[in-house]
Amino acid sequence: MAGSPKITRIETFLAPPRWLFVRVETDDGVVGWGEPVVEGRAEPVRAAVAVLAEHLLGQDPARIEDHWQVMTKGGFYRGGPVLSSAVAGLDQALWDIKGKRCGLPVHQLLGGPVRDRVRAYAWVGGDEPAEIRDALAAQIEAGFTAVKMNGCGRMSPLATRAEVRACLRRAETAREVLGDERDFALDFHGRLSPSNARRLLPLLAEYAPLFAEEPVLPEQVEALPGLVGASGVPLALGERLYTRREFLAPLQAGVAVVQPDVSHAGGISELRRIAALAETYGAHLAPHCPLGPVALAASLQVAFTTPNFLIQEQSLGIHYHRGAELLDYVVDSAPFRFDRGALLRTDRPGLGVEVDEAAVRAADAAGGHTWRNPVWRYEDGAFAEW
Fold it and tell me: Entry's SUPFAM superfamilies (predicted)?
């Protein structure tokens, strides 16, 4: 279309603690930001963004859905976390540009808000019960009404009684400190074998966790119907699923909460479709987001407009942060101020976050980061899930 703006420049920036930002600029000076990253694999995602940029340069940024279709389906070989995350960050940036050009927040472009507040939870680690007690008390003092913690550490393929009791003590401690009016969730990171999950989940029910996250690995989807039937604890998963198609089998198995990540699962465009799919199964959306400010801002735009939204993850003070914090790369922290454990809706255009471009450029110029997740092993030297 004659006279339409065109994308003229796409840049990426590695920034501590483990983030990757993308900047998309048009020929009339409008800039959109996104966060395309796989934790521990930022460099391959950066390369994938460069390949996808070949399609976007010279194109009209307003054609978001068409660009999404081409970026996800235009290659004969499709899918996977690296490509999907590259698409996700670029999709965020295109929505940011559209909102800024229209002078509207993205949630207005998605149909308008259905809520004014987005409840969020804080991380409290979870490795030592004594430390948990103090960390929980600190989050209560900060005004949060929900927390999440690791459900276990390294777990034997068939858990010992001591390992089971250690998990239960975490839950018991959380319930004692939080009382009955606040919530806690347990994240197992796929560390439980299906047999361990069948043993442990029924024992956790008396502590009424908000949900148990990734009790088994995402590829063990065949175990989910039995786990859903074995316990009244709601099951959650989805941070390692990247398309709505991958969420279909877990939803059919009865998973209660889906947790797609806006920086992994195809961006805002696919996140809202996953949420709609979950709604048809009576499931709730709790977006995964232990990442940076652009990813959180994009997640919030979906949360404000999603009827079946439950709760939002956010990374303020999370244990993964080394060398930078959530708000170190934003000009104004106002969109991320908490009110009684919730983030408030704003009408700032686009994603609603102003990135500190100078800080991002400086972080990348200083070497960015090479964050990698730990590799765990059992006592016999064999690989263990982290």
Answer: Enolase C-terminal domain-like, Enolase N-terminal domain-like
Helices assigned H by DSSP within 105-233: 106-109, 129-141, 161-178, 194-204, 224-230
Decide: helix, strand or coil at residue 339.
strand
User: What CATH number has the domain bearing residue 128?
Assistant: 3.20.20.120
Q: Which active-site residues does the annotation give? A: 189, 288
Going by C-alpha positions, the residue among 322, 352, 360 that lies closest to residue 334 is: 352
Enumerate residues 6+ apart whose C-beta is below 8 A from 207: 168, 171, 172, 174, 175
Count Cβ neighbours within 10 Å for each residue of 207-233 and write b for 16 or more, e otherwise.
bebbbbbbbbbeebbebbeebbeebeb
Which 3-state string (H, E, C) describes 272-329? HHHHHHHHHCCCEECCECCCCHHHHHHHHHHHHHCCCECCEECCCCCCCCCCCCCCCC
Single pTM value for the model: 0.96
d(CA 20, CA 46): 8
Total domain count for the chain? 1
pLDDT tens, residue by residue, 12-52? 999 999 999 999 999 999 999 999 999 999 999 999 999 99
- Domain presence at residue 119: yes
Cα separation, 32 vs 97, whole angstroms: 5
Give the SS3 label for residue 194: helix
CB 325 within 8 A of CB 296: no
Structure tokens at 281: 């199964």
In a domain, 38, yes or no: no
Run of H or E including 71: helix 64-73
- Shortest CA distance to 150 belongs to which of 355, 250, 290, 25? 290
167-187: pLDDT as tens digits: 999 999 999 999 999 999 999
Of 38, 23, 29, 35, whose CA–CA distance to 6 is shortest? 29
